[in-house]
Amino acid sequence: MKPISVGLLGIGTVGGGTFTVLERNREEITRRAGRAIAITVVADKDLARANSVVQNRARVIDDAWAVVNDPAVDIVVELIGGTKIAKDLMLKALENGKHVVTANKALLAQHGNEIFAAAQKKGVMVAFEAAVAGGVPIIKSLREGLAANRIEWIAGIINGTSNFILSEMRDKGASFDDVLKQAQKLGYAEADPTFDIEGVDAAHKLTIMAAIGFGIPMQFSAAYTEGISKLTREDIQYAEQLGYRIKLLGVTKRKANGIELRVHPTLIPARRLIANVEGVMNAVLVRGDAVGQTMYYGAGAGAEPTASAVVADLVDVARTMTADPEHRVPHLAFQPDRLSNVPILPMSEVETSYYLRLLVQDKTGVLADVTRILADLGISIDAMVQKEPSEGEDQTDIIMLTHQTVEKNINAAIAKIEALPVVASKVTRIRLEELG
Question: Catalytic pick from 87, 205, 247, 253?
Answer without folding.
Answer: 205
